[in-house]
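Rather than argue in generalities, we reproduce a single protein record, letters for residues, whole numbers for local backbone shapes, just as it appears below:
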Amino acid sequence: MEEKEYESAVFTLTDEEGNEIDFEIIDKCEKNGETYFAMIPIDAEEITDGDDDICEYVILKLAKDGDEDILVTVDDEDELDDIADYFDDRFTQEIDYDN
């Protein structure tokens, strides 16, 4: 699958209550042979975790369902913590505007 397929891609996900929510990919990483995506809701009025500067995001993993690529939740807590730490580090890096 080409990387360009995921740039600015919008995915409709269904939550536990059956509500459909559109998400946009904000970052992607490959680690330990797996591909992970950080995604945020598109139509959210205000998605924060109590701190106005921190937006909540969802982490999903690329998996195969036969010949089809699908996005799945990360069930392993250690794996999820590791990937969340990676994305958190990337999102909190200071931007160097001088370079």
About this structure: Residues 47 and 53 are 10 Å apart (CA to CA). Residues 3-92 form one domain.
